[in-house]
Amino acid sequence: MTALLGAPAFAQAQAKAPPAPPTVLIVGDSLSAEYGLRRGTGWVPLLEKQLASENKAAKVVNASISGDTTSGGRSRLPALLAQHKPATVVIELGGNDALRGLPLDMTGNNLTAMTQAAKKAGAKVLLVGMQVPPNYGSAYAATFSGLFAKVAKEEKVALVPFFLKGIADGDDAAANFQPDRIHPNEPSQARMLANVWPELKKIIP
What we know:
Rossmann fold; 205 residues; globular; single chain; alpha/beta
């Protein structure tokens, strides 16, 4: 009898359990995977601290893999969406496509497919744009950087025009990078977050 009397109270307590915090899924490459950095110093861990400081109850899942391309991200995304059920998806891919000279049409198609898949899963999307150095040729560089804005406009999603703004385009840019001159160093991670945060905070529930 005691157990039966306690059942309604238990059910009521279960019903009042707080909802799980929304998940922010980061699908990126080495720029988001802390390549060459001490663990916990990359822009994604800094994002977690930013969320905590602003009392935003969101869970960050960093599914970034060094060396990944938009094709790799596209193939991985369905499983990630099913597993984590994110409310927000940050797509930070494309830089390795350019470094490998992959067809720009393929990169654009992959970005579009990933964006559409995330939206179909109920997530809001932030595209993180990249640029390539002038030595790739002005036409290639302009077309590549324009891919992100084109997809964002067509799919009506948020955009960071250039992830490395203030890092790769300054007078003393080399000082902001690791010795390979490809990956930003630890002091530059806060600037990377500063480039992402204004747009990201708008779409986190």
